[in-house]
Amino acid sequence: MKNLPVxxxxxxxxxxxxxxxxxxxxxxxxxxxxxxxxxxxxxxxxKQYPSISYETKGEDDNGAPIDVVIFNPTxxxxxxxxxxxxxxxxxxxxxxxxxxxxxxxMMLMRDLATGKIKAPKNVxxxxxxxxxxxxxxxxxxxxxxxxxxxxEYGFRGNARNYDLNRxxxxxxxxxxxxxxxxxxxxKPDVFIDNHVSNGAxxxxxxxxxxxxxxxxxxxxxxxxxxxxxxxxxKNMEKKGVISVPYVNIHGDVPDGGFPAFVDSPRYATGYxxxxxxxxxxxxxxxxxxxxxxxxxxxxYMVDNLNYIDENYKTIQQKRAENLKQYKxxxxxxxxxxxxxxxxxxxxxxxxEAKYKPSDISGKTRLWYDRNSKFSKPVKFYNTYxxxxxxxxxxxxxxxxxxxxxxxxxxxxxxKMIPIKQDSAITVEQYRIKDFKTVPNPYExxxxxxxxxxxxxxxxxxFRAGDFIVPLNQDGVKFLLETLEPEAVDSYFNxxxxxxxxxxxxxxxxYVFEDTAAKLLKENKALKxxxxxxxxxNPKFAQDGDxxxxxxxxxxxxxxxxxxxxxxxxxx
Length: 571
Ligand SMILES: [Zn+2]
Description:
By secondary structure, the chain is of the alpha/beta class.
């Protein structure tokens, strides 16, 4: 009887350490956790270890919880503990068919809590346990046709079939709203988004996308690219993990070189970069065994914890310095193009690409000969130069009628000052001159691109309650990338302003014929311009309808607000 408590203790210790194995560890190495197993694991871990907190902080489109797990050994609240420290934030399962990060993060949180690996002193480690919950629940074995395990996994689209990794600006999903809220709460210094690659075959298990250094900003971009990421990867190599930038080619072979992936703001790291966070997309290689992929994902996160722990002061200082680049009156690049004269040579470790007749069609097909390894220099193009620039204004003015935009800015903690009384303000305004639109729906939208605006200025009336938005704030890049119509992922391009592209009133030809004739008769300057247009444009000279339309568009009858962009600039 006396020995019973000891025995009991032994048994409970035994079952306890057993139960803190993750489903991935308990399985055959080719299995990933389910959503319910994951939650139960973290909830029990949090119960056992005060350094782990596990809380619901958002909601999937299907109503299921999006949970955030935090390792914070300080006994203070997150808000207090983060002071003077850096925050690493990891996102998992945005594409649940690529679950490596979900399993790796469970093990890492556990290993930090149990002291299996040394807790960093200067970093708070935070993660979304799994982001696309409805996708994770939609398990199957076939949707990733080219992937080598796990045996079963979730689906890429969420419950409403959105690819959440295109939704960071347009915010169609509740998931995206939740992410923005969580991100603005955590305000991380460094961000990692865990994925699995598609594309060519080569020797690497670990590939990565460093967020575009140019959009990140000169100081932070150069520091991240030349120093931080290089050190992280060297440390990985010391552990025997070789790496290569995401092999950004599809349907071709990498031997001819490849450019850095452009993670515009619609993507996770494109969004986080707008708030001055350093971002990496981990892309483990789809054809490598699942357990090897989980291991390198784990290793890279540990590597980050160690690096940030040592360099948190430098990181914070670089982040602060970097923001100074975006002062009012400075130039800001809205579009970038690849500089094809600049590249670095990568010692690329590939498999020989070979060709043989297809068993299906008899036509020539590509295959990679894994017995024929090579290592040779391949060009990696990683320099982008501005293709379109604007001047950063002092303020935007946003009428309260644009409540959808105002709501998204609020979600991102953008400072906005309501106008106290009705006022006429001298502002600069854009007219949408031209744009193209994709022919088929893309992620729930008919996305515009190649947008081109012209500028006008004058006094415009605003109402009490409309908003003045200063650009002298931390979210300056977010404001520019969403509110400048020519930016690739602007709210304009994502269809938020399509209503103003339509003309509301028009004319009947037989009535306006007489009005137009009267206008030309009474307005000499108009008549001269009209005749001039006819003389230089022979097609116009032969087109009666076009001539009438010309007079209409040059008269008071034409809607002044047609194609006038309803967000204003003060320089
Ligand atoms: Zn992915």
